[in-house]
Amino acid sequence: MESILVSACLLGEKVHYNRGDKRCDNPILQAWLREGRVVPFCPEVAGGLATPRVPAEIADGAGGMEVLPGKARVIDVTGRDVTAPYRQGAEQALGLVCSRRIRIAILKDGSPSCGTSFTYDGSFSGKKVAQPGVSAARLREEGIQVFSETQLEQAQELLKQLEGKVAG
């Protein structure tokens, strides 16, 4: 049975920067929980950031692919460089998926770590950019199929393919 890495905030864990969560009650995710497939993970907490913490964004509209090689930084709203914990969390996410042979991840879109289709531009003004977060980028680099919480149907289809449950 395939395991699936899921952002802990989507499971109701209070790991969001404001000590909240981003709980997702989608029936697909709930079924995976019942089946014991879900591996919860928060790269920001794993990287050493506290909860609560001040908001952070990837600077200058760059994405996680630029943060990984050191070409861009993650800054918090006070101007502090928090790139190192974001990179560390991404590496821990990769270590977990490799050790558990996970091939699918469901990550919280918009997050500087987990954003799949967008993050914010670093101005703390709410402006979105079509760039992945640091952990999403790192997992994709290694061939992990990364989806957002709005793409659970697509993830479910891939899961069926991986487990050979596709109708002929």
Question: Can you give a write-up of this model?
Answer:
With 168 residues, this protein is α/β, with parallel strands linked by helices. The chain has one domain (4-162). The protein is 32% helix and 15% strand. It has 6 helices and 8 strands, in the order E-H-E-H-E-H-E-H-E-E-E-H-E-H. The strands form 3 sheets. The chain has a 4-stranded parallel β-sheet with strand order 2-1-5-8, sandwiched between helices. Strands 3-4 form a two-stranded antiparallel sheet. Strand 1, helix 1 and strand 2 (38-41) form a beta-alpha-beta unit. Helix 4 (83-100) runs parallel beside helix 5. The longest helix has 18 residues, at 83-100.
Q: Number of folding domains?
A: 1
List the total number of helices: 6
The SSE order reads EHEHEHEHEEEHEH
> Helix fraction?
25-40%
The N- to C-terminal Cα distance equals 20 Å
Structural class: alpha/beta
Query: How would you characterize the largest beta sheet?
Result: 4 strands, parallel
What low-confidence regions span 5 or more consecutive residues with pLDDT below 50? none
* Portion in strands: 15-25%
Mean pLDDT: 96
What is the 3D form?
globular
Strand order of the largest sheet: 2-1-5-8
Determine Rg (CA atoms, Å): 15 Å
Q: How many β strands by DSSP?
A: 8
